[in-house]
């Protein structure tokens, strides 16, 4: 059987090689043109590298005859060596790349030049002193005989200390000329699996109930008017469903009621975390039913106008009150037309391209059309007010309470920090009765930025922090950009004469086990009036009821986890005891009702180096709190990923990653972030990440994510494969 498998493998490999050579030939001819040769500039364009050093080195090595151009034969020979050659052939090529002067050895200056180019390729910015340190660390580790040069054998021995690098070096070495992989569709969840049902049972049950209710309402209304024809039956059936949808759609946005429900047993039954998704679904249903309802009535009016017994023409039935259609002065037709126009306007302005393209205000103001819509619906349908009675009372009560609480007393922004990646860090004086939980959010209004606009932001400070509320706001839309620019443009905004004394008293009164943020680019002590509405609950409230929580944040998606991580460490420190005699530390093994966590894995994914800077001090403090514990048994484990950095298997980064590993091992901290946790290049391999989590067996695993919807879909599929519960924070 092994012999047969080997033959099959050889046949498959031969077919793949033939396809690859054909593809390379096509690409070469496209780039080379009529002369069938590639010069250095064309080679740089094809290679698509940020730094020309590697392009020039690769070009020199590919150009075997030294003619200054590369022929198809030279390219095929070089790529065949890189992709199909043995490990020693590939290692020799790497050595030649590093041996800039071609003397058969690598000196410290050549290695520094290579590492500097590696930094540029990976979009990493380090000081000259740090670059020298990385160079010396790698050079001294490889130069075993202390001769002042690295020989081929020494480089080979050094690479063998990093498992998997030699085997995979070929993949990245010629990745730029590999045929594009067949486009794979995003993984989709499998609805018939037990894991899918486990993660979606409450949503599926509610959706089934919703569909069943619509079928029932439509059938009852249609059957009551079956004597008036099909068009009237359809119109009445859709109208009855719209009575329910147009009233209940407001219930899904009662944030205070939903926050209260999260603290009850109903949170385990109802899909409260998907309230916005259900709100959007009902919006689509309302638009669809309204169009069918309108078309059915238009058909009915056309049939009536054609009837000899009807005294009215079609346009009179549709656009006037003369026929007396409706229960309030014949306004049914006119209000129906107005309702459809308003609905289509709201629907168009609610699209994601409007909301996420810096025009949130358009979405916000057009969505306020629900008030005239409710008034028109009351005039349009004789029974709508009955459906609206209870939801409407709840809705207006919540709005009244929210307005009263938010406007009861103006608060003040006492400090502002402008952080990297255009993040604005606000410190707001905390009201006396403002009680919230980790991960909650609030609505913020700053009259000096926009008098009538309220925007939701996650609270990034822990509830145990009594004096101030922290908000970290990234500049993405018009309002957030105005906020950032208003502080960037002025040195001090509305500052009072006692600001330094007030800030000093506030800092000294905050007795909390954490360090302040890293020194920001701009720092303002101020006294700016603002209003807040909240707090409101989120899915992350479930974290403390988990046994093993995996928190995944992408970019600014760390914000809800900032509060949670701080609160976790507050509670963790409360369980920590130190013997006054021998200074021995131990933890209480008893799990309380507020926190059942046994283990927390925090994964933060950022595109570039600067995105880590604004929050690294908190993570440093979290690591310090666990410094005395062994790595294997730590309660909180951090995992950092930088997607712009090239991996160890890439020839343009292998030396840098090896040097970073050596320095991190020596200094016990990462050169990119300063944390003890080593920043990993590239994107996480989620299968390996979740395999490791499952192997730890710390209890039931729940995954909490805040980031892009595309990544959420990928994570959801992986969670279902491993049987993990998945919760997504609105991004």
UniProtKB/TrEMBL annotation:
It is found in: Membrane. The keyword NADP applies. SMART domains: EFh. It holds the Pfam family NAD_binding_6. Residues 406-542 form the FAD-binding FR-type domain. The chain crosses the membrane at residues 204-222, 242-261, 281-305, 325-350, 362-381, 387-405, 549-572. Keywords: Calcium, FAD, Flavoprotein, Membrane, Metal-binding, NADP, Oxidoreductase, Transmembrane, Transmembrane helix. The keyword Nucleotide-binding does not apply. It is a multi-pass membrane protein. InterPro entries: EF-hand-dom_pair (IPR011992), EF_Hand_1_Ca_BS (IPR018247), EF_hand_dom (IPR002048), FAD-bd_8 (IPR013112), FAD-bd_FR_type (IPR017927), Fe3_Rdtase_TM_dom (IPR013130), Fe_red_NAD-bd_6 (IPR013121), FNR_nucleotide-bd (IPR039261). Residues 50-85, 86-121, 130-165 form the EF-hand domain. It comes from the Eukaryota. This is NADPH oxidase 5. It comes from Pipistrellus nathusii (Nathusius' pipistrelle). The lineage of its organism: Eukaryota, Metazoa, Chordata, Craniata, Vertebrata.
């Amino acid at each position: 059987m092994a012999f047969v498998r080997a033959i099959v493998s050889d046949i498959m490999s031969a077919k793949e090689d033939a396809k690859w050579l054909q593809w390379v030939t096509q690409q070469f001819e496209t780039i080379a043109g009529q002369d069938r040769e590639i010069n250095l500039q064309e080679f740089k364009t094809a290679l698509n590298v940020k730094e020309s050093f590697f392009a020039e080195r690769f070009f020199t090595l590919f150009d075997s005859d030294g003619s200054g151009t590369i022929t198809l034969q030279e390219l095929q020979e070089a790529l065949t060596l890189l992709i199909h050659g043995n490990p020693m052939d590939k290692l020799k090529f790497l050595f030649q790349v590093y041996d800039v002067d071609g003397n058969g050895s690598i000196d410290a200056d050549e290695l520094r030049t290579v590492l500097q180019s590696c930094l540029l390729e990976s979009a990493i910015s380090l000081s000259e002193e740090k670059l020298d340190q990385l160079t010396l660390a790698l050079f001294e580790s490889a130069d075993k005989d202390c001769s002042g040069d690295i020989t081929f054998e020494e480089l080979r021995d050094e690479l063998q200390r990093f498992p998997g690098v030699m085997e995979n070096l070929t993949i990245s070495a010629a990745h730029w000329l590999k045929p594009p992989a067949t486009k794979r569709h995003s993984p989709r969840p499998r609805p018939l699996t037990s894991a899918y049902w486990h993660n979606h049972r409450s949503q599926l049950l509610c959706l089934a109930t919703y569909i069943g209710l619509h079928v029932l309402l439509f059938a009852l209304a249609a059957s009551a008017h079956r004597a008036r024809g099909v068009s009237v039956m359809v119109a009445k059936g859709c109208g009855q469903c719209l009575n329910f949808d147009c009233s209940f759609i407001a219930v899904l946005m009662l944030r205070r009621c939903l926050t209260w429900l999260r603290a009850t047993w109903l949170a385990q039954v109802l899909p409260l975390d998907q309230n916005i998704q259900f709100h959007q679904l009902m919006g689509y249903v309302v638009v669809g039913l309204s169009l069918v309802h309108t078309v059915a009535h238009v058909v009915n009016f056309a049939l009536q106008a054609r009837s000899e017994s009807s005294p009215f023409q079609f346009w009179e039935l549709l656009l006037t009150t003369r026929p007396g259609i409706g229960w309030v002065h014949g306004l049914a037709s006119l209000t129906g037309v107005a309702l459809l126009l308003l609905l289509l306007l709201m629907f168009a302005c609610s699209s994601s391209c409007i909301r996420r393209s810096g025009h949130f205000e358009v979405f916000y103001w057009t969505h306020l059309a629900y008030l005239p819509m409710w008034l028109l619906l009351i005039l349009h349908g004789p029974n709508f007010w009955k459906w609206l009675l209870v939801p409407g009372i709840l809705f207006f009560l919540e709005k009244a309470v929210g307005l009263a609480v938010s406007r009861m007393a103006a608060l003040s922004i006492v400090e502002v920090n402008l952080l990297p990646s255009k993040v604005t860090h606000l410190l707001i004086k905390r009201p006396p009765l403002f009680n919230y939980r980790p991960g909650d959010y609030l609505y913020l209004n700053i009259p000096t930025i926009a008098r009538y606009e309220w925007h939701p932001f996650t609270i990034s400070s822990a509830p145990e922090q009594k004096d101030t509320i922290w908000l970290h706001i990234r500049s993405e839309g018009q309002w957030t950009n105005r906020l950032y620019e208003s502080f960037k443009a002025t040195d001090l905004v509305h500052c009072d004469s006692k600001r330094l004394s007030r800030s000093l008293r506030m800092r000294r009164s905050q007795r909390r086990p954490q360090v302040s943020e890293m020194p920001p680019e701009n720092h303002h002590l101020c006294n700016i009036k603002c209003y807040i509405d909240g707090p409101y609950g989120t899915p992350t409230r479930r974290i403390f009821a988990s046994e093993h929580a995996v928190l995944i944040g992408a970019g600014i998606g760390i914000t809800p986890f900032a509060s949670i991580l701080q609160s976790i460490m507050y509670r963790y420190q409360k369980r920590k005891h130190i013997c006054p005699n021998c200074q021995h530390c131990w933890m209480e093994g008893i799990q309380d009702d507020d926190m059942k966590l046994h283990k927390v894995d925090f994964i933060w994914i950022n595109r570039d180096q600067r995105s880590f800077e604004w929050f690294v001090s908190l993570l440093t403090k979290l690591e310090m709190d666990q410094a005395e514990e062994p790595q294997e048994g730590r309660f909180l484990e951090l995992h950092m990923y930088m997607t712009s950095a090239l991996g160890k298997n890439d020839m343009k980064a292998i030396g840098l990653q090896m040097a970073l590993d050596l320095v991190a091992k020596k200094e016990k901290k990462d050169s990119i972030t300063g944390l003890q946790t080593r920043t990993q290049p590239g994107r996480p391999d989620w299968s390996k990440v979740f395999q490791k989590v499952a192997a730890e067996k710390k209890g039931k695993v729940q995954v909490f994510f805040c980031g892009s919807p595309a990544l959420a879909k990928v994570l959801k599929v992986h969670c279902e494969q491993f049987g993990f519960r998945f919760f997504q924070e609105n991004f």
